[in-house]
Amino acid sequence: MASEDVKSTGESAVTTIVNLAEEAKAPTGHAILSICKSLFAGGVAGGVSRTAVAPLERLKILLQVQNPHKVQYNGTIQGLKYIWRTEGLRGLFKGNGTNCARIVPNSAVKFFSYEQASSGILWLYRRQSGNEDAQLTPVLRLGAGACAGIIAMSATYPMDMVRGRITVQTANSPYQYKGMFHALSTVYRQEGFRALYKGWLPSVIGVVPYVGLNFAVYESLKEWLIKSKPSGLVQDSDLSVVTRLACGAAAGTVGQTVAYPLDVIRRRMQMVGWKDASQIVRGEGRNSVEYSGMIDAFRKTVRHEGLGALYKGLVPNSVKVVPSIAIAFVTYEVVKDVLGVEMRISD
């Protein structure tokens, strides 16, 4: 009798251990699958949103870096017409392949990092405040967005650097770079590893308000609209696609307006050291301006071209950012819904 009890107890113990092991495996496998789906959704969101506004993205960069003594692009409409006339349809999307190769992993890392950062910050906030029902405030969302932006920017910055150079190449410039990998290897070989991170500091400083405000404004607007439930905008405790697009547009407009001067300086610093830069940047018979650092770039840009130079390309960038950020946020949430990922950025 005793032996039977021992045997029964042993079998129960083994069964319990097996069940616990299976339960431990299930969440791990589910978590990995959820992470992959989240990264995939972020990548798709970035690729779709950036391709939709690729012509405006290229024009913005050309306006940012063109030589003030040899102006070829005088505005959004004129600039797009000039590119179409001189380079055709392919000219409008030049650098987009490289851009997507950068933005897809950047967007994937950014959205995933925001989810993780916001979860960690919320846990710390609830623990510190002692309120287990506390929710993220706009300031905390700003901090989570800033963390996500810094991580994503740092992880993919070399691709962004060479993308800027490829985008600046025109039909009249020497085609030094044949593609992203050729550009990466050429810059590394001719200018060294540090050249791949030229303009990194203003990029990181700029990404804090830009990405931070994007997430903070988008999330806060959505939360406010869901709570206030204005007529026609909320459907079954959720926002319509059009309303979410509007929230994303507002978020993008606020973020890019604050961070835009740093983006201009970043682009100009990225061109330093490029001996075969297009004449649009260097100018005929003129030496390109050399910058010793971010502050020096700000000072020389303002001294030589005025304060308005810090906002060159703002109009096409604004036209680009409004749909781009909106499409990215909505695409991300729609793809996650399709893939069946439970956690969304609002959660």
From TrEMBL:
Gene Ontology cellular component list: mitochondrial inner membrane
Subcellular location: Mitochondrion inner membrane
GO biological process: organic anion transport; organophosphate ester transport; transmembrane transport
Sections of the chain in a coiled coil: none
PROSITE patterns: SOLCAR
This protein's name: Mitochondrial carrier protein
Solcar repeat ranges, renumbered to this chain: 33-120, 136-224, 239-338
InterPro entries in UniProt: MCP (IPR002067), MCP_dom_sf (IPR023395), MCP_transmembrane (IPR018108)
A Pfam family reported for this protein in Swiss-Prot or TrEMBL: Mito_carr
The species this protein was found in: Asparagus officinalis (Garden asparagus)
Membrane topology: Multi-pass membrane protein
Keywords: Membrane, Mitochondrion, Mitochondrion inner membrane, Repeat, Transmembrane, Transmembrane helix, Transport
Family stated for the protein in its record: Belongs to the mitochondrial carrier (TC 2.A.29) family.
